[in-house]
Amino acid sequence: MSITLTINGQGRAVEVAPGETLLELLRRAGCKSVKLGCDTGDCGTCAVLLNGRAVNACMLLAVACDGCSVTTVEGLEVEGRLHDLQSASLDSGGVQCGFCTPGMIMAAVDLLSRNPHPTDEEIRAGLAGNLCRCTGYVKQIAAVRMAHAEVDDHD
Amino acid sequence: MTDTPRNVVGLNERKVDGYSLVTGKPVFAGDVDFPDCLHVKFLYSPHAHARITAIATHRAEALPGVAVVLTHENTPLRRFTTAGQGYPEPSPYDARMFDTKVRFVGDRVAAVAAKSPSIAARAVQLIDVQYEALPAVLSIDEAVAAGAPVIHDETDATGVRDPSRNIVAEVLVEVGDPETGLAESAAVVETVCETPYAQHTPLEPHVVQSYLDNDQRLVLLTSTQVPFHVRRIVARLLDLPIARVRVIKPRVGGGFGVKQEVLLEDVAALVTLRTERPVRVELTRPEEFYASRTRHPMRVGVKLGADTDGRLGAVSMEAISNTGAYGTHGLTVLSNAGSKTLPLYNKAPHVRFDGKAVYTNLPVGGAYRGYGATQGYFALETAMDELAEQLGIDPVDLRLRNHIRAGETSPIFEEIGEGRKGVEQTIGSCALEECLRVGADRIGWRAKRGLRRRDGSWAHGVGMSIHMQGSGIPAIDMGAATIKMNDDGSFNLLVGATDLGTGSDTILGQIAAEVLGVPLEKMIVYSSDTDMTPFDVGAYASSTTYVSGNAVRRAAESTRRQILEVAAAMLSSDASHLRLADEQVIAPNGRTVDLADVCLRAFYGTDQLQIGATASYVGDQSPPPFLASFAEVAVETETGRIKVVDYVAAVDCGVAIHPHAAAGQVEGAIANGIGYALTEEMTFSPHGRIRNPSFFDYKIPAAPDLPDIDVILVDSYEPTGPMGAKSIAEIGINAPIPTIANAVHDAIGVRLKATPFTPERVLRALRVLGAPNG
Amino acid sequence: MPLTGLESYHRPVDLQLAVDLIRTSGPGARLMAAGTDLVLHGGDEITTLVDLSGLNLAYVEVGDTRIAIGAMTTLTDVLEHPALATYLGGLIPGVLRTVGSPMLRNAATLGGNLVRRQPWSDLVPLFLALGATIRHFDGTEHHAALSSFYERPGHRPDDILLEVVVPSYGVGVAAAFEKFTRSAVDIALLNCAVWVSADRGTCTTARIYVGATPRPAVDATSVAGYLEGKKLDQRVIAEAARLGATDVTTGDDRRASATYRTHLVEVGIRRCLTRIVRSLEAS
Ligand SMILES: Cc1cc2nc3c(=O)[nH]c(=O)nc-3n(C[C@H](O)[C@H](O)[C@H](O)COP(=O)(O)OP(=O)(O)OC[C@H]3O[C@@H](n4cnc5c(N)ncnc54)[C@H](O)[C@@H]3O)c2cc1C
Ligand code: FES
Ligand code: FES
Questions:
Q1: Is residue B582 scored above 90 in pLDDT?
Q2: How high is the pLDDT of residue B774?
């Protein structure tokens, strides 16, 4: 089956197998930031923005995303400038192995887009679907805090 | 503590691999697509214990797209250990690539390589196996029972203590006369604690890709902690010259010990050799649970004897460890339950460690962060809390009266090693007193302890424990580093040390940059590739910062000397008078020469040479990091649920080369330990089949499950460490179980002695619920 | 392996067409909402999927006497809808915050949850207790109580849930929900939803559903019967909770034992009723 979708701002026509997940499609399309940590919707390493909202790509059927717009972490850097959440993740020390990082960042992008000033508790709830075994979340939460402070600075 | 000014060490630099990680570059082993690649799926044993009487693969082989089917009938039969340890491995050679007997549900029976994962999966279903089921051993008690089924009845296994009794290893050490010591003590406590099967769950499951390069050499691109051990073990197993094998470790998505094992590389390699095609083998999340490695479940009993002031006179520990179907790390994990815990209370003249590791027909134990110490500390630090209670001494004071100090030693260092005798050592740095003080202050220990404060249905309490670990295995772990200088004043740093998310590439880069007087950006760090980087045992036993770090320091110092030699000629000065700073060599008279010019001269001027060096390091010591751990918990007495509301870990890791990375190691380890304390347990059916192999049912902590873990890095300087550093990676994971157990006791007055501390167990301890059925 | 047998996918823009597609595509045809459950658990017998996302069923419609929620509305959109923030003290968003993760809720639909009816679903007991009614379509449109929808012998694959309607309630009505889990993001070890209508502190009607027992939510009719006509004081609440623990059958599974679940039935009903009394007193 043939579908069209926008991946990181680029319109693409792609062939998909009927049972293929969005995760499989995106990795096949070269977006290797989309990780397979569980394949059951429990870990969040496959998180991407679908029409602006963070979803688990492993739980969605690729064909059903026909006509949608997908953003992965590869699409966040604009003209060599990292997204605030990317820089904050580096500066807070929130990246250890980095396997959970793309998904974590995408979930945080969604969180901040809806709630630009989350409390720590809201950050924790916002990242609840993104498991990380390396960090204990302390510095990842700090990264979100740091990024929203920066958003304020830009205002 | 040291007065040398630091330019790079001690700073929270951006990770050298950070950019590629936050932008999602294809840097993990599974991120590369090889053309014409084969995919492997395994057939696993449905039986806990059975003999394979017949196996027929023709239906599978006939399926279009299938390239090879591997079974015991067409693979090497030599026994080996999958444990990625130094040679000769202290683990028994009791495994085969594929065996004629299966020893747990999930044991490998066959592998299929096909052109797609789904074809391989379908072909697996087409393999016909006939089993003769055997009675199975599903617990420690069944393993040691008289007349128990023998799990390793083969004659060609080596390194097993007593296969006929399912005993993999035994360790018995006695110092002084513990029995009399206990008998003569004014106060004696005795406690037995149990920890279950648990899994590391790195977010990246195991993955390896293999291919033949243009010279027909075998290349393994693998998610491993131990590239050099992988090369050696695969080459020996498949009868290949080591020269024909190259192992590349790219970015690794977490390991925690589970990737200190050769689990998939042998199969990938063999399929590539047979087919000459690239091969990809990766585990699914469920397979990660049952078919990779786990934490060794243990039952640990501790007896303490003390005088009325709480001064310990005798410490005795008995540990029995379940190594599962194969003995990987069986002996060494068991040994560490004693060797990493007992020296902490070195004042006791009478010490005993009596340990046994036994086989069962359950998943295989392996290396897991904490490595036995986690299990040992649960019992030891619970017993210390009970002793404090019995004597009416504050638990912090009790620790202060007994813990090891700088300048002191413990006979255990020498008595228990890793598969052989240990190494005598004197503690060079120990800031545990300070850790106890700042930790207690920060949690509000004196104000909160013993209050039984209630807040609605929640009962609050505080608890604590102290810990030590090591920094590599002394006299065994070796690391090496190579530095070479480039003509813009940058350097390549090539290390065999294995960054698996720990930040070691960054930390090692900082050490080199500090010595060479350059900013971190001038270090191009590469790890690890058996063709390109010098040897290193790999990332385990908390060795990287200390062992590999010392190797890097040496290589940098040697490089520095060469730079000064060349610069001396350029500055017409004596090398011994020159300094290196800010990317320049500076003469006493103020004249300077840029590093770039030094290298240009070395490349193209007179007396040409490549400036650079390779250096190695083996520790004759393993300086322990120390940790004082404090937690406040709330226990919901209606439901039994425990919430950790505050957690403080005050650590002495020597000088923190990269404070964020050091704190991050502790935060992550504490988080993992909280999971092990509260929710994590692999459970099994009566037939030995795992019941919860998914994140849906095996609950690891998510962000809302944890408090803001507060790590305090206490000032300290380790004289033998690189720049004063010690290790930090493992120690944190030992702390949450006893700390939380002790806090729960403070809150509700009951002692929990088996993890995880589930709500049901809490209610049973409170006698709100009766004993479980059956 | 899930959905390996899938051959065709349709996204009709017409209800009748959707039903026809299901009827003409053989036994392997299924309706699909977000597909999160189908992708994870759908078997290889599924050959055709009929996606409901082209049917304009994602909406929240606020009327004077009711709130109607389209079956294809995502859990996030339900959670964030302002009208629901005030409905019964924000009960529905409060429950939704405990359903899966934010990313799951961004995709999963209310209809998918209610039709799938996992035994541990939080929304099934919640909407049952709220007295929800539904509209569904199988060639003709039907109205029914959600409870009667579940009483039928089995869900027909060509029966499309269109919307779920909850009545507006005035003073004297309150509801509460309790969910017990192992960790923050987890399915219920047990959950219960309680709805009470009262007249000056005396219960006139009650609905109590207990889910994840581990079987699908059950109507604790004996508890509801007991409460009717009683003044909701501590003693009555305690007795109702005890009755629930006796009358609701629980079982063991890998997540919890029957004994613990029975204990939780009591705690859950007690907590819900206590909260209900508090909010009745406040209104
Ligand atoms: C990791 C995870 C955690 C979860 N945690 C919770 C939780 O804590 N609490 C909870 O309640 N739920 C939980 N869920 C379930 C979740 O809320 C959804 O209910 C579920 O995923 C299905 O939603 P969907 O829209 O994707 O349905 P789909 O997968 O599209 O459909 C599910 C079934 O319903 C049928 N169907 C869907 N819509 C309609 C319709 N309008 N008419 C007729 N038939 C229809 C489909 O044919 C299919 O059989 C969890 C799910 C996951 C994966
Ligand atoms: S891979 Fe999608 S949630 Fe884990
Ligand atoms: S950084 Fe390793 S899993 Fe999060």
A1: yes
A2: 39
B344 assigned to some structural domain: yes
**pLDDT tens, position by position, A83-116:** 999 999 999 999 999 999 999 999 999 999 999 9
Interface A-C: count of C-beta contacts within 8 A: 87
Confidence of residue B137 (pLDDT cuts 50, 70, 90): very high
* C125 CA to centre of own chain: 5
Domain final residue pick, A22, A54, A73: A73
Contact in structure between C277 and C198 (CB atoms under 8 Å): no
C264 contacts B768? CB cut-off 8 A? no
Map out the domains of chain C with their CATH numbers: 8-53 (3.30.43.10), 60-167 (3.30.465.10), 173-282 (3.30.390.50)
| One domain, residues B435 and B489 | no
pLDDT higher than 70, residue C222: yes
- Distance (Å) of CA B553 to CA B546, B695, C81, C123: 10, 41, 60, 60
Given a contact cutoff of 8 angstroms between Cβ atoms, the answer to whether B629 and B464 are in contact is yes
Residue of A nearest to B671 (CA): A136
- For residue A36, the ligand 2 atom closest to its alpha carbon is 1
- Kindly tell me if the per-residue pLDDT of C193 is higher than 90: yes
- The mean per-residue pLDDT over the stretch C99-104 comes to 98
Both tokens assigned to B370:
């904490």
Smallest CA–CA separation between C247 and chain A, in Å?
34
Residue B556 placed within a domain: yes
Chains that touch B (3 or more CB pairs under 8 A): A, C
* Phi, psi angles (nearest 5°) of residue B454: -115, 145
- The count of structural domains within chain B is 3
A55 membership: H or E segment, kind and range: strand A53-56
Q: Which tokens belong to B310?
A: 């709480």
Assess whether B644 and B588 both reside in one domain. no
Q: Which of A73, A93, A117 is the last residue of a domain?
A: A73
Structural domain harbouring A19 = 2-73
Residues of chain C with C-beta less than 8 angstroms from the C-beta of A42 = 185
Strand order from edge to edge, sheet including B128-133: B101-102, B50-56, B128-133
Whichever domain contains A92, its CATH number is: 1.10.150.120
* Closest ligand 2 atom number to CA of residue A57: 2
Amino acid present at C237: I
Give mean pLDDT, residues C56-85.
Answer: 97
For chain B, the average pLDDT equals 96
pLDDT at site A153: 58
Strands A69-71 and A2-7: parallel
CATH assignment at residue A40: 3.10.20.30
Total tally of structural domains belonging to chain A? 2
- What is the average per-residue pLDDT within B141-157? 97
Give percent of chain C above pLDDT 90: 94
pLDDT band at B2 (very low <50, low <70, confident <90, very high): very low
Q: Are strands A69-71 and B592-594 parallel, antiparallel or unpaired?
A: unpaired
Structure tokens at C116: 């799938």
pLDDT value of position C258: 97
Question: Residue C28 class from Cβ within 10 Å (0-12 exposed, 13-18 middle, 19+ buried)?
Answer: middle
> Per the CB < 8 Å rule, is C107 touching A59?
yes
Q: How confident is the model at residue C167 (pLDDT cuts 50, 70, 90)?
A: very high
Q: What is d(CA B256, CA B234) in angstroms, rounded to the nearest whole number?
A: 22
Interface check A141 vs B, CB under 8 A: yes
If asked whether residues A117 and A138 sit together in one domain, one would say yes
Domain membership of residue B703 as a residue range: 298-473+621-765
